[in-house]
Design a protein that fits this description.
mainly alpha, two-stranded antiparallel sheet, 2 strands
Length: 221
Amino acid sequence: MTLPFTKDQFFDLLAAYNAQLWPWLIVLWVASLVICVLLASGRRLPDRWISGLLAVHWAWSALAYHVAYFTRINPAAWIFAALFIIEAALLVSSGVVRDKISFSRWPNAWAPGAWALIAFAMAYPAINAAQHQTLLGIPAFGVPCPTMIFTAGMLMLATPRSWPLAIVPVIWSLIGGSAAFLLGVQADYALPIAGVALVIFSMQSRPSSSTARRRWRPTAI
């Protein structure tokens, strides 16, 4: 596999992306951390909030990263952006508009792996900073690869299991995972692992009605 850009062009692009958008990347990271902490603590969150956050991740990666930056060095970024917008639209349709996705901190035997992927995605900027010894020209947050890893973990905490929601993340695990070895981004080696886990998880049968999703209801005061 060959890339239509050089390694230096890629990291220079990331430096520009981080320098110009860093306040919003921090906001996205903090919002994701808050949702993860609340979910892990057992708090009943509106499922629409989590679906909406995932949709924001995919729309941000599509527009703020692929369209605004990555298209400068890779024409295929327009196709990638379209895929990411499709994933964002599916999340909005299924999880926000129709509220058909439920998230739980420990819904099945996949929960330990799911939380490991989520924790890895949250630590993704620090992992890359440690490898490259810089905070600027690195894949940080709000870029496609941590978005895919974070989403895979969240979908593995969700019911019902949905193939349509898994297709684009699995596709990106193949694209981003193969590029990781060429670009030397060691944190992205987790992409194939996340992709395989999501495929196996999605292929398994749905939970029985006795473990059907519990909708969030406001607590009476």
